[in-house]
């Protein structure tokens, strides 16, 4: 059996003209629990009910350089360094080095077959 690569959706990020008002709208109309960073969704891991998993939804200003299209998906992964090496061996475009943000975990960006930027995230557990 192949090792796990993507283990879930880490987040969905949306470009908008007014990120703050967009967060307020989602809070008011869809019940998102909003912070300045967006909204967290927590659930239990299917293979380990004692483990809580978090996914996020967040808004970004339209002129953000973090991603080019209207949306960017962040995939939760395990063993990000090993995965990056495997991706490189398979000629997948890796856009940057793995960045370690002590509070959140490790991140790297890749391109899919059609050039869509994806963010891979190994959360700090």
What's the layout of helices and strands?
Elements: E1 6-16, H1 19-30, E2 34-35, E3 38-45, E4 48-61, E5 71-77, H2 80-89, E6 99-101, E7 105-111, E8 117-123
Parallel strand pairs: 1-4, 5-8
Antiparallel strand pairs: 1-5, 2-3, 3-4, 6-7, 7-8
Our estimate of the beta-strand percent is over 45%
Instruction: Please provide the count of β strands.
Output: 8
Q: Mean pLDDT across all residues, rounded? A: 91
**CATH domain class name:** Alpha Beta
Number of helices: 2
Task: Order the strands across the largest sheet as they lie in space.
Answer: 2-3-4-1-5-8-7-6
How far is the N terminus from the C terminus?
25 Å
What is the overall shape? Answer: globular
H and E string? EHEEEEHEEE
Q: Any idea what the CATH architecture is?
A: Roll
Radius of gyration: 15 Å
Largest sheet: 8 strands, mixed
CATH topology: 2,3-Dihydroxybiphenyl 1,2-Dioxygenase, domain 1
CATH homologous superfamily classification:
2,3-Dihydroxybiphenyl 1,2-Dioxygenase, domain 1
Regions with little confidence, pLDDT below 50 for 5+ residues: none
Integer tally of domains = 1
Helix and strand content put the structural class at alpha+beta
């Amino acid at each position: 059996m192949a090792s796990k690569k993507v283990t879930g959706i880490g987040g969905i990020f949306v470009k908008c003209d007014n990120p703050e008002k967009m967060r307020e709208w989602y809070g008011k109309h869809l019940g998102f629990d909003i912070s300045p960073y967006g909204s967290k969704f927590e659930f239990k891991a299917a293979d380990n009910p004692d483990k809580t998993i978090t996914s996020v939804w967040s808004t970004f200003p339209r002129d953000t350089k973090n991603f080019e299209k209207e949306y960017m998906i962040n995939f939760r992964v395990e063993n990000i360094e090993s995965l990056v090496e495997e991706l490189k061996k398979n000629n997948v475009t890796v856009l940057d080095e793995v960045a370690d943000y002590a509070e959140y975990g490790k991140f790297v960006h890749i391109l899919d077959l059609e050039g869509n930027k994806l963010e891979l995230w190994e959360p700090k557990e």
